[in-house]
Design a protein that fits this description.
This protein folds into three domains: about 110 residues, Orthogonal Bundle (Butyryl-Coa Dehydrogenase, subunit A, domain 1), CATH 1.10.540; about 110 residues, Butyryl-CoA Dehydrogenase, subunit A, domain 2, CATH 2.40.110.10; about 140 residues, Butyryl-CoA Dehydrogenase, subunit A, domain 3 (Up-down Bundle). The chain is of the alpha+beta class and about 375 residues long.
Length: about 375
């Protein structure tokens, strides 16, 4: 049976200066930010802001300088992410590329793949999407049926991906395809680096309940790729994709992407408070702090080259539950009129519409709790 392994960590000496730097950049750009979308900011897109972060050295922070990085520590990067999410800054353009696509390429990719794409990610100019979920697979990635067939000229892709965040702005996708005909479950899967302007790719929007366009369907019709499009080893896609999910599941976006809503709730308590609302604020902050300690413990292990998949899964599940509850608890406590154009009311109304998706992205709750149960020796 596994336990949640807490690694000791200390905040870096540069923490105070880093926080001030991020706050200055946010202040210079926030006149453009959509106030409502700040309650789900890590999917909000603002390429100008992404390029500003790249110019300031706040993307690719931990990467080698020869790949356009800055060789900062993982905890320094974590501090920057905390500040951006707490401020509700629109980081959706670069988020996936910086969080997992470029690190995946540096770990498994070829020198050509790294040199072609990774420096652009560090500049805030190259954006990526993840080709995992499919209509018949969902979060059960072992059911992936989209196929990659090898021929004398390279690879031919056919199939469909769904719920693909940011595919409409991304230049590249890391896609999981079944590369061995007749294979089943987690065998015979490979990952591919796919330029999104390749002929045969069609991106169709999925509009969510709030009217926002974050998700997409992506269709592959005889999409031809060079042999060098394979990422890592053929047939090793399952291991690579699950390692990548540790980066996706453990970050501060799993408990901070709604932080702007909490901030506005606490501001409201300055003029409209009662004992029940104050208790709710205290409860939220205590849960937030606990999740932060758990998430940073995972970050410390990732920084040491470990793969804390079990702990990352726990952070993701608990963080999703926390964030999904926030708008409901605030609305019930303050008995808000959600038709009002006051900022708190608009934020709660928006968050109630998008919060159900929180437990889908990065793996559904049912899948995650199965992983946790196995880690605890319960199944």
């Amino acid at each position: 049976m596994q336990t949640f392994d807490i690694k000791p960590y200390e905040m870096p000496a540069a923490a105070r200066e880093l926080r001030a730097q991020v706050r200055d950049i946010v202040s210079a750009h926030e006149h453009r930010f959509d106030p409502v979308r700040r309650a789900n900011c890590w999917v909000a897109i603002d390429p100008e802001f992404s390029r500003a972060l790249g110019a300031a050295g706040l993307l690719g922070m931990t990467w080698p300088k020869e790949q356009g990085g800055h060789e900062r520590s993982a905890l320094e990067r974590y501090i920057v992410l905390e500040e951006l999410l707490a401020a509700g800054a629109p980081v959706g353009a670069h988020w996936i590329a910086d969080r997992q696509t470029a690190p995946l390429l540096m770990r498994y990719g070829t020198a050509e793949q790294v040199d072609r794409w990774v420096p652009g990610v560090a500049r805030g100019e190259v954006y990526a999407c993840i080709g995992l979920s499919e209509p018949g697979a969902g979060s059960d990635l072992a059911s992936v049926r989209s196929a990659a067939r090898k021929d004398s000229e390279g690879w031919v892709l056919n199939g469909q991906k769904v719920w693909t965040t940011g595919a409409h702005i991304a230049q590249i996708m890391i896609g999981l395809f079944r590369s061995e005909e007749g294979s089943e479950r987690n065998a015979g899967l490979s990952q591919f680096l796919i330029p999104m302007d390749t002929p045969g790719i069609t991106v169709k929007p999925i509009i969510d309940l709030s009217g926002a366009h974050d998700f997409n369907e992506v269709f592959f019709d005889d999409v031809r790729l060079a042999e060098g499009a394979l990422v890592g080893k053929q047939g090793n896609g399952w291991a690579q994709a699950t390692a990548e999910l540790s980066l996706e599941r453990s970050g501060p976006e799993r408990y901070l992407s709604s932080h702007f809503l909490m901030t506005e709730f606490i501001r409201r308590l300055e003029v409209q408070s009662d004992a029940g609302a104050l208790r709710l604020a205290g409860r939220m902050m205590s849960e937030l702090w606990t999740l932060r300690q758990m998430s940073m413990a995972v970050a410390a292990r990732l920084a040491e080259g470990e793969d804390p998949a079990f702990e990352a899964t726990m952070v993701k599940d608990l963080g999703n539950s926390f964030e999904q509850a926030i708008p409901q608890l605030i609305e019930q406590q303050l008995e808000l009129d959600l038709s009002s154009e006051e900022i708190l009311e608009m934020l709660v109304a928006y968050e109630l519409q998008v919060a159900p998706s929180f437990s889908l992205r990065g793996g559904t709750r049912e899948i995650l709790r199965g992983i946790i149960a196995r880690g605890l020796g319960l199944r």
